What we know:
The protein is an alpha+beta fold. The chain has a single domain (46-174), classed as minor pseudopilin epsh domain (minor pseudopilin epsh fold), CATH 3.55.40.10. 26% of the residues lie in helices and 26% in strands. It has helices at 21-41, 46-71, and strands spanning 75-80, 83-90, 93-96, 115-120, 137-139, 148-154, 158-164, 170-174. The chain has a four-stranded antiparallel beta sheet with strand order 3-2-1-5. Strands 4-6-7-8 form a four-stranded antiparallel beta sheet, with helices on one face. It is elongated and about 100 Å long.
Amino acid sequence: MAMSATGSGNRARGGARxxxxxxxxxxxxxxxxxxxxxxxxxxxxxxxxxxxxxxRAQALVALACERAELSGEDIGIAVEQDRLVFGRYGDGAxxxxxxxxxxxxxxxxxxxxxTLELRVEAPLPALPEDGxxxxxxxxxxxxxxxxxxxELHGPARRHWSLHGDSAGDLRLExxxxx
Length: 178
């Protein structure tokens, strides 16, 4: 009696067979890889939008403060109509940086679903204004920073705060609104 490598020869040839454990595991592995790829392709959930906007705001403020130190000129920070705006003081007025692709500190709307609120903990020195909205906080050329709190309220009741202190340090905190 001939015996096959997978079992006894009692099985009828051409009969229906079930899936083996290896076939099931391969199918499960393929499904897992596809699910992982879909998750990586669509990472922005409502719960993460405020977190990503807060991280971008922190990076932009850090860049503004670094540029202020390197250039020797104070750089202003303001929130205008749900946008984060950076500028410098010159010719008797605050001027926002150009809204051009080559300008890293151009006005930014971080996310359409995230609202911004900037609270300054110490008043700015009196500076002449030309009627336009001026800076609300400053990155100082000497490395300091006007103490401030930038509140970011996002979808899914997510809330983040970016704190800047007089030593120039930035701290990002999450406080889920309930």
